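Um, can you check?
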Amino acid sequence: MACPLAPNARKPTAFPADSEATRRLQEWLAEDGRSLFGVEHDFRGADLSGGDFAKAWFTRAVLAGVRCVGASFYRADLQSADLTGADLTGADLVRANLNEAVLRSARLDGADMVKASLCDVDASGASFRGTRLMGASLLGVDMRGADLTDAVLFQNSFKVAVDDTTVVRGLSGTVFGPITVFSGASSRELAGADLEAWIGERGGQVQVIPPLRQPAVGAVKA
């Protein structure tokens, strides 16, 4: 049974089942203003909703199934963390590092992920309904079966994998492509007008912008 945490401005509400992770949380709660160091700890069973984990270290941590509703992970390091089935509804993930994390079947509805980094991420079956993804880097992200209803993009790197079950209704904004669309055993790459049409046919409205051109080597600026 999860034990309630003492009242604290950071407001997590239950300890994890793992005694070592519990000890680390207790130490952090007793510290004044330091970032949580939760590298490789197992936080399963915890309820971290409303907690302030800004700049925390959750590198390679296990947060599968953990409730993090409304929690702040501003600039937190979640690289290679397992967030399978975690509830991050309304969470602050601005500038968070989620590279190589597992977000399979996680709920990120209404989360703020502005300028977050997601490289080589498994987000299959995840829910991003109404999520703010503006400026986030999405490179090598598996979004097959994900729900992007009403999510908002702005100049996003958007090299993602989708399939016929990926929901993009109400998805809006601007992106750099291309995406890879899987259908059965086959796949195809879509960019430019083809990508815009694919999203448009499914109820979204996204503008694909050309990649920024780098000046030629040796070019003389006017």
User: Anything to note?
Assistant: Strands lie at 117-119, 137-142, 156-163, 172-176, 179-183, 186-190, 205-208. Residues 1-9 have pLDDT under 50 and may be disordered. The chain is about 10% helix and 15% strand.
